[in-house]
Design a protein that fits this description.
By secondary structure, this protein is α/β, with parallel strands linked by helices. It is built from 8 helices and 10 strands. It has one domain: Alpha-Beta Barrel (TIM Barrel), CATH 3.20.20. Helix content is 37%, strand content 17%. The longest helix is centred in the N-terminal third of the chain and has 16 residues. The chain is globular.
Length: 241
Amino acid sequence: MKYTLEIACFNVQSAILASNAGADRLEICDNLHEGGTTPSYGTIKFLKEQISTPLFVMVRPKGGDFLHSKDEFEVMEKDLLLFKQLGCEGVVLGFLKPDGTVDKTMTSRFVELAYPMEVTFHRAFDRAVDAEQALEDIIDCGCQRVLTSGQKPTAVEALPLLTALVKQADDRIIIIPGSGVNSSNIKNIAEQTGATELHASTKIMVPSTMKYVAEQMRENLEDTIVNIEEIIRMKQYLASL
């Protein structure tokens, strides 16, 4: 069985480290504390010039919910087209209606706009009112993947639903368990759910290298990068299955 390990990266340094550590695919985002938003054009252009690992780019103009205005949809279209021009392999997005159902009209539109890039419907899925129906709607829209924690805060809390989703998908779409996936549980998640693609962030905090710190500002200037040892361990565990 061949497994794919996708690593979420929130800055250029993390993306290069994850690529060098053997990640099979990178999800590139900005704004970790907002759950991930659209990274800059410059970030993606730079990474496409520096690494060959496939890039799936977050297309999400704001944090918070997954209900978007007409203006936000227009911004997302422009971002998506730029990433397509840069040769990205995929985009990550997701749209819900106010009642918690999948916005099939906009999802279908963005899938068509993204082609030949692949589309992952992100964890907006975990806020959907009915997981089974949401999955069928997303399949109907033509998405290639769903990134989900099984409608729980972490994937390990939702193994029964994730297993059911993989079975329901029946090779029509790829279910990617994510959130809280690490080297201590990735083997169990893969074995229990039957998922062949898994998503992890492996975040660690690193101190600022500033020599002068304005203490009166009472700021935490730590940065977040990926843990390359964790990536290597997860790859090893998946290879052993």
